[in-house]
Amino acid sequence: MEKFIWAFIIGGLVCVIGQLLMDVVKLTPAHTMCTLVVAGAILGGFGLYDRFVEFAGAGVSVPISSFGNQLVKGALQEAEQNGIIGVLTGIFEVTSAGISAAIIFGFLASLVFRPKG
C-alpha cells in the first residue's frame, strides 16, 4: 500500500513541475514536454532514474520523463553491444512499441471521433 502512495505523490510532483514550468516560467506545453524528456534522459544517463522507478513505480514510469530515460537506456545498451551505431538503433528498438501504439491508437481514435473546430 505504501508504494501506491509514493507513486501518487511522486507522479503528482512530476505533474506539478510541468505545470510550474508552464505557469511560472511561461514555457509552452511543447517546451515543457521536451524539458521533462531531457530531464528524464539526464537522470537516466547518470543511473538515477531507475532508482526513482524502484522507489515510486508508476509515479515515474508513466510520465513523459520516463520516455527520455528509455531513450538513453536503449542507446547505452545497444552501444555496449554494437558500438557507436548501437546508439542510433537502440533508441528505436526500445521505444518502437510505445511509439507504434501511439500512432495506431491515435489513428483509430481519429476514425471514431470527429474533431471540433
TrEMBL record:
Keywords assigned by UniProt, alphabetized = Membrane, Transmembrane, Transmembrane helix
**Per the UniProt entry, what species is this protein from, by scientific name?**
Anaerobacterium chartisolvens
Entries under Pfam families matching the protein:
SpoVAC_SpoVAEB (PF03862)
- NCBIfam families per UniProt: spore_V_AE
Task: List the transmembrane segments.
Answer: 6-25, 32-49, 84-113
Its recorded name reads Stage V sporulation protein AE
